Amino acid sequence: xxxxxxxxxxxxxxxxxxxxxxxxxxxxxxxxxxxxxxxxxxxxxxxxxxxxxxxxxxxxxxxxxxxxxxxxxxxxxxxxxxxxxxxxxxxxxxxxxxxxxxxxxxxxxxxxxxxxxxxxxxxxxxxxxxxxxxxxxxxxxxxxxxxxxxxxxxxxxxxxxxxxxxxxx
Length: 169
Hints:
By secondary structure, the protein is an all-alpha fold. The chain contains 6 helices and no strands.
């Protein structure tokens, strides 16, 4: 039935959520170097809005509890930042499938994700916004570069493998 999740879908969502979570934990020793944005871009393009939003929701909750960052300062902004990816890739950027353009969108997603944290840091923690931005620039560059490079290098081969494994055309 269209619109309902089948057991196959639940298994796929579980496996892909696990992969998303595990890769992020494995790469935590390198600040802002990750495959998270790449994977959410891939999932958005291959699975659509519903399944990808479930993956992101489960991932954010699991990650927030695991890292003890569950709360108003981090969790809502992580969720919004990551949910913007499937939301935009299944609507306004739906027709973009070129890995270079997706890589450029990865840079945009990275910047938006990083800048969302300005809100709680300035208004809740009362951090000077100029100091926050200045100190965050190297981390934004790392996140943008890792997102861009992972998408342009890995998107096409992983997309093809994804299609083959899930028997999609």
